[in-house]
């Protein structure tokens, strides 16, 4: 007998590459090119405070988010990026023997948490044009999770269809992962359904629209009972997930709505312009409601473009996976960066 027989074996999630070189155009991990609000940059961190433990409930940040979203603070759960919040939600809510459901093409961390926590899964296929079909989510299941907009496709599921999935599954928790929702048209978020459905958990992040991926802040909003269940699990695992800088800088970001609107607006405008450029160059682009686009060229294989671009210091994301291995996921950077990318593509697609 060896200790090796009792190891929890998992195939870990592979994050996008973080190149060491400077002067690259980094469009492979959906970071935001504009940086956090000046309020965050001007925030004074009291370094003496690092000596003491933070508030385990992170109440300053919870209260700021509750006020921002017009919910009760007892409806807000915060964590170390939305990965932490999602992992905690899987551990808390997906405990039956029935399989949880998520799309075949989606955020590739879901199957990893499922394996880690030994949750059975079923993965209904997206339609040919990468839509989630709500009627696929009527099977008997132990829970449902999907991103909206979906990743890596960037496609938005209209709110009525999100609601169809939630209302068809009243006996399990439905997690809507809204990592990219701030780049979608107003009125797309399932937050408006939280009061109506006690089985709905909406997950958000500061990594994309608030440009704070390096700090690691995520949160979930749901009815009080759901949030209390997550808190009980969190306090049974690690009471101090939110460190002091995250709480302080997170609050500063939430306080600057003008900057948030300005930068998310700029990214969506650049996305529309860049989508047209790609289309003119012979790409099929899935309509995007996120800060990235998912595109496939009519004749040149995606992997070839990916490798050539990388050689020039332009980083895209490429998934060598069935159904999507001829697509590139390209994060929207500044206008200037996207102009360089469009020129590169123009010169290299023959
Ligand atoms: N959900 C989706 C759909 C994502 O693409 C990502 C980014 N990798 C996350 C959640 C996690 O983001 P973070 O942990 O930075 O909040």
What is the tally of beta strands? 12
Distance between the termini: 59 Å
Order of helices and strands: EHHEHEHEEHEEEHHHEEHEEH
- Mind describing the biggest β-sheet? 7 strands, mixed
Query: What is the rounded Rg?
Result: 20 Å
Count of discrete alpha- or pi-helical segments spanning 4 or more residues = 10
Short description:
The protein is an alpha/beta fold and 350 residues long.
What does this structure look like?
The protein is α/β, with parallel strands linked by helices. About 35% of the residues lie in helices and about 15% in strands. The chain is built from 10 helices and 12 strands. It has helices at about 40, 60-70, 80-95, 110-115, 160-165, 225-235, 245-255, 255-280, 300-310, 335-350, and strands at about 25, 75-80, 100, 120, 145, 175, 200-205, 220, 285, 290-295, 315, 330. Strand 9 and strand 10 form a beta hairpin. Helix 2 runs parallel beside helix 7 (about 245-255), helix 3 crosses helix 6 (about 225-235) and helix 8 (about 255-280) packs parallel to helix 10 (about 335-350). The longest helix has 24 residues, at about 255-280. It is globular. The N and C termini lie far apart (about 60 Å). It binds 4'-deoxy-4'-aminopyridoxal-5'-phosphate. 4'-deoxy-4'-aminopyridoxal-5'-phosphate binds near residues 83 and 205. The site of 4'-deoxy-4'-aminopyridoxal-5'-phosphate has 12 residues, from helix 3.
